[in-house]
Amino acid sequence: MPITSVTTDPEALTLTVVADFTVPVRRLWDAYLDPRQIERFWGPPEYPATFFRHDAAPGGRSSYCMTGPEGDRSCGYWEWVSVDDGRSFEVRDGFAREDGSPHPDMPSMRMVFDFAETALGSRLTTTTLFGSLAELEQLMAMQMEEGMRAAMGQIDGVLAELAEYAADRGTLLQRVGDDRARVTRLISGSVEQVWRAHTEPELLQRWLLGPDGWEMPVCEFAAEPGSRYRYEWAETGGANRFGFTGDVVEAVPPVRLVTTEAMTTPENPDGSGGPVTLNELTLTPTADGTRLTLMITYPDAETREMILATGMVDGMETSYARLEREGLPA
């Protein structure tokens, strides 16, 4: 059990948990900022979490649900207040409805996570600040301390596998729930470089090409909410043309980009009538570059499986490898 102390201070309205780990600070930090990893311990073992969004930047948001053995769910959110890379971050943590919106009948609290080096590795101090004594007592009565102990007791197992996460540079796919897919890739470049590569047409045309033998003659994109974009690809020589079009829903440079996407063909140039996906791109700095996380929401599970079966992820890996070779700006 990594927890070394738990202190409740009714006068200061705080709950402070100190935990020690035998890994470098950066490994512990990445466990909290990578959605694939935090969802393996953010919740007691019998209530594993699924993170649908995890923005590690001021003004960002995280959204998650914990599912019990009988299918019962408890959902929550984080509103990111501040981030000091590798050292600390602060969030407002609260209960949420199924749609991710704050639960009006439940309190929220501030949580500060401080990471520090120790002689044996690293120490995490988590301080929860409550709005009132009544809220502190309410949440303690809901076994908040016991839940934190059970959740943090799982971290050592996750940390033991962090070297595997860091070493795997390929494009990784996870099915999330019934209608989503999460694609993750570590890119050798800064967050700013990767953002520009995803939002500047002349850069997109260098790398977003899929398998060799294709070109991108049309690339119209502006990272402005409400704008419409259009991509078109063709095999060298002009055959087998297709593309995608959609709207920019949200743009928070250089960390978050949300778009809709529909496939176009010469016979259906506006993509009408076909499936439309919601694509949420999040960029997070790491010790080795940038973690790219793309959460794709499909109309249903059948559509998800149909699109994944096309070899989409292999094509994405080919493009991301090309991005690292020749698509990043200087």
TrEMBL record:
Q: What InterPro entries does its record include? A: ASHA1/2-like_C, START-like_dom_sf
What residues does the Activator of Hsp90 ATPase homologue 1/2-like C-terminal domain cover?
23-159, 190-325
Out of the domains of life, which is the source? Bacteria
Q: Which family does it belong to?
A: Belongs to the AHA1 family.
Spell out the protein name for this chain.
Answer: Uncharacterized protein YndB with AHSA1/START domain
Q: Which organism is it from?
A: Leucobacter luti
